[in-house]
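Field notebook, page 494. I keep forgetting to write these up properly, so this time I am using the form the group agreed on. The chain and the ligand, heme C, are recorded exactly as supplied. Prediction of the bound pose follows.
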Amino acid sequence: MAQTVTFYEDIQPIIFKNCTSCHRPSQIAPMPFLSFDDITAYGSMIKYVVNTNYMPPWMPEPNQVHLRNERRLSKKEINLINAWVDSGMEPGNAAKSLSTPDYDDQPKMKKPDAVFSMQDSFEQYGVYYDQYKVFVIPTDLEEDKKISAIEFVPGNSTIVRSCFVSIDRTDRSDPLDEWDPTSGYFSFGEVGFTPMESRWFTWNPLQGVKDYEDGAVKVLPKGAKLLFHIHYGPTSKPLKDRSELRIRFSKEPDSKIIQNIPLIHKYNLTNLPFEIESKEVKRFHSKFIVPYDLSLHSIMPHSNLLGNTWEVFTVDPKSKKSKVLLRIEDWDFKWKEQYAFSEPMLLKKGTVVHALAQYDNSEKNLSNPSDPPRKMTWGKRMFEELFLVYFEVSPIEESSKIQALFNPSMVTNGKFSFDFENKTPQKLTMEIIDFKGVKKGSIFQNKQFHVGPQKIDVNSKDLPFGNYYIEISNENQEVLTRHCFLNVEQDFFE
Ligand code: HEC
């Protein structure tokens, strides 16, 4: 290391590269780090937060499987910060100062095909605590739309910490919206009921436009409502937000649909019941078998305030080798996000996916919402817990003889409709299969279909809760499309 570590030579480049995107006026971080004075005012605190890995905020541990947008300082950068703070925060040669980075905070998607905004603006009062609100946005689309790119634009970047967009086609959000007199309605862990697809799209600060690659698309169905679940950070003065979602439609005729689905949940826990006694520290384990070859784009674990670790790993069916997809040693609800792989991963049929999460219900857990700690059970409320891992998956193979459209990732009331576009006159068979490959029901067999959109009523009432998929094949036993869904009880998220 150089003899003397100085601000302009060594530290400013590190801060500008890793911190200033959030630590500048009108962004999420409470203090700007633009000038020498800004930064030296927080010198020892900066040293503390980088050594404890609290900043830059990034929960996953370093791993062989790389994630997009990894935010991590190198050992060398941390050592430089330590040496600089310990030696009295020397400025060095100001002539070597970099110019302040130029940030363009305008939306990046210039000519979106559709924009969906919150109907009213929401005012976060000058309260020093976080708020969690759901805003219902009707889309009024005339037809199902395939989407190739999405950008969430926070209306106020100082307070919007994250937004998870769910979609639903029912009226279940109406009573919740009516019950809360303010704009939107309050809900902590989930949107207050089990939507057709939870976290259809997710946003965290610094994310930018999300482009779906390789012919993969999201579907926004006719009649869908978007549910913006926004986490507002604390503020000392009243601030307003009106966020929006910008969307680009796909022009590809054949596409593979990406769905986000919590394939790890309470129904595949191996150590039930899901209860954590007061003062107890407990680990839970869940697993599922990959039912057919899938492309995995991202994963997103979710626990509430008692959660303190996560590990998701796979075991190859042949070699029995295991591979860690994600490991979090210090879970922090505030920084939850969807972790996208730098390249989509192949999840081969038969692979076993495991998840382990630890919950700390002692007084030592400073985030514990109950004082004294009380027994914890399943639920979306702040004093309850969830054990979920969302997997953003698309099929590897899709036939051009059929195009699946939007279909629910979660089914709650024992029946749902399965939508697809039939592209050639053909005889089709449709079945429900569980994740162990056991056929659980036949919807129809060798039924003749004309070309055009189809809506099939599916009954899932007698299925035990858990993971399933729908498979449509033709007369030659050729599989044309598959789609995973989770059959859940009505109050799964209540
Ligand atoms: C993704 C946005 C983001 C980035 C990048 C980021 N910060 Fe922060 N930082 C925050 C937020 C938000 C807070 C407020 C505390 C919280 O919410 O946890 C914060 C708080 C802090 C604090 C105060 C800690 C406290 O306990 O109040 C320090 C010091 C800090 N950051 C340093 C850094 C440094 C140094 C970097 C770069 C190496 C960095 N931050 C990168 C968002 C960010």
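OBSERVATIONS:
- Residues 18-19, 21-23, 28-30, 42, 45-46, 49-50, 55-57, 71, 73, 205-206, 334 surround heme C (CB under 6 Å).
- Residues 114-252 form a domain with the Jelly Rolls fold (CATH 2.60.120).
FOLLOW-UP: compare against the apo run.
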